[in-house]
Specification:
Layout: E1 3-8, H1 20-27, E2 31-36, H2 38-41, H3 51-73, E3 78-83, H4 85-95, E4 100-106, E5 122-127, H5 136-142, E6 146-149, H6 160-186
Helix pairs in contact: 1-6, 3-4
Length: 187
């Protein structure tokens, strides 16, 4: 039986998310995937669909709305793959009781304001040119590690090199766990 993987989009959701099909193509044969458009989860409806307006709508209550909707929709433990604001939504939902096996967040800069971490394995990936990524001191304070990728900025998750890396990381995490589980059962 395949592991469950919940994917949370960036702030654009499916509107500018053709890149998400690459992730789905790599991962769908290994996971039972549920995809959420963060604009839909957060009831984001702006008159002018600009980056500033969409971002502000998330800050002005959209994140909290998305967290509440995610908590209602997801009751079974799953792995989470999240992009940008999706990582902040998953992080907050996990702190509010969302059953989470692991969190892999790419370019989720809003987590930099968090003071507690979810109780699950966490992997954070940022481009070294992303000016809003958490500072080194935040990682120490919160007790998590992050990974920086040289030569990339915030939207790095749309790049094919990063897509392949993230998918391989996820597959390695799940296959290593299943190998360990099989070995433990043999003992």
């Amino acid at each position: 039986m395949a592991e469950r993987l919940v994917i949370l989009s960036d702030m654009w959701g499916a509107k500018k998310g053709l890149w998400i099909t690459s992730y789905l193509g790599y991962l769908q044969q290994h996971f039972n995937i549920t995809f959420y458009d963060c604009q839909q989860l957060g009831n984001i409806d702006v008159k002018v669909n600009s980056e500033e307006n969409v971002h502000q709508a998330f800050v002005d209550g959209g994140i909290e709305t998305a967290v509440a909707h995610l908590l209602k929709k997801e009751e079974e433990p799953a792995h989470y793959l999240c992009f940008s604001v999706g990582g902040a939504i998953a992080w907050k939902a996990a702190l509010s009781g969302l059953p989470m096996k692991s969190l892999y967040a790419v370019s989720s800069t809003r987590v930099r304001s968090e003071v507690k971490k979810p109780d699950c394995p966490i992997r954070l990936l940022f481009g070294d040119s992303d000016v809003y990524r958490p500072k080194a001191s935040w990682y120490k304070e919160i007790g998590v590690e992050g990974e920086l990728v040289n030569g990339f900025s915030h939207d790095m998750y749309t790049d094919e090199k990063i897509i392949k890396k993230v998918c391989l990381d996820l597959l390695n995490t799940v296959t290593q766990k299943s190998v360990k589980t099989d070995k433990q059962k043999a003992i």
